[in-house]
Specification:
2 copies of one chain form a homodimer.
Chain A lengths: L12 H10 L2 H15 L6 H8 L3 H7 L3 H24 L6 H18 L6 H9 L6 H26 L9 H22 L3 H17 L2
Helix pairs in contact in A: 2-5, 2-7, 3-4, 5-6, 5-8, 6-8, 6-9, 7-8, 8-9, 9-10
Chain lengths: ~210, ~210
């Protein structure tokens, strides 16, 4: 699903200027993140994005001076979208197990492709960059994954502290299992388009949390 | 780990011919599969492979007429190596749960990078091709993944039939969980080089199988 719908170009110059004016940096980057969730960051050239947006390459160069700058800005935009669509809504749930479950449910909706066309933006770009040597783009991806893991670990620890999960729960191990069971659905869905994979992930995680319940 | 060690080129022409003679198609393809496990199949050009092998491009063209032919032959070679190193040894274990556990252990050794430098060849190339349109290369990758899943499903069903796993075990769900818990280690190991991920996968799968035990 696109996060904003581009107003189609019109023949009127005045309308054209209005349309171009509406294409803010944030909107360009939402399109870029959506495109990269499907095709990866390496395919995200200024030319490819210009075609997608119906803008001139020079117009985009005014926003982003290089491909790497565009890639880094796109990762930043995806991070903001993720924070807004996944993390913020889950914060409304009660601390402890309810918030952990809300985070998992929101992440699965996101992986199912309700936010980006390609499902999980970060899973796509992680697969693209994880075998490469460290560099600004790879480092930014790794930092975002680390941040998500730290957030999830805090939610698990908080569910243990609140007495919702057993005191002897191995939080790191539980985090590994939740992330593994959820990532497999998003990864295999890319190839098979089999939506029952997400039901399998949900059932597996629910059973795992039930086993850890205090 | 390389599956065979290339004899380094020598200055003697006679030795050189012997070395070249020893580079059979199978040996070329083992190198290709190892290279692709790290860099993917798209980076596997005839020029790149010629450099790796210290062979001439024309020498390789005699074996493989096109990049796609080379990619398909490499997938076939990886499949044979996987069958020899993972599937065949596990067949020696007793039918039922012992064989299922042997398959899982052999697959984890393979994912840990004991067979290919890049860990799981098929995980690398699946990530590379899963968002692309169907074609001979993508189809070959998907067929190999389907074949592995079918083999694992037979092993699970056989463990249920043998009375080693509970009769009410959902074989498809168990397969999903085992594959998810094992794939996450190989995928995240690519980025973090954290070897404890494989211990997490092993512990998670062992707990899952213990819960399903009859």
């Amino acid at each position: 699903m696109l996060l904003f719908l581009l107003v189609p170009p019109t023949t009127s110059d005045l309308d054209g200027r209005r349309v171009r004016g509406a294409r803010t940096r944030a909107q360009i980057l939402e399109t870029a993140a959506n495109l990269a969730s499907v095709e990866g960051l390496e395919g995200l050239t200024i030319g490819r994005l210009a075609t997608e947006l119906g803008m001139s390459k020079s117009g985009l160069f005014a926003h982003f001076g290089s491909k790497e700058e565009l890639q880094l800005a796109t990762i930043g935009a995806a991070r903001e979208i993720f924070a807004r669509e996944v993390v913020a809504p889950a914060r409304e749930a009660e601390r402890g197990l309810p918030r952990l479950e809300a985070l998992i449910a929101a992440k699965l909706r996101y992986e199912r492709g309700e936010i980006f066309d390609g499902g999980c933006f970060f899973e796509t770009v992680r697969g693209e960059f994880d075998s490469r040597r460290p560099g600004p783009v790879r480092d930014a991806i790794e930092a975002d994954l680390d941040e998500w893991n730290a957030l999830m670990l805090r939610a698990i620890t908080s569910a243990i502290t609140a007495g919702h999960l057993r005191a002897d729960t191995d939080a790191e191990q539980l985090l590994y299992e939740i992330e593994a069971l959820s990532a497999a659905a998003t990864l295999r869905h890319q190839m098979s388009r089999d939506a029952t994979l997400f039901a399998r992930a949900e059932a597996a995680i629910a059973a795992r949390l039930a086993a850890a319940r205090a």
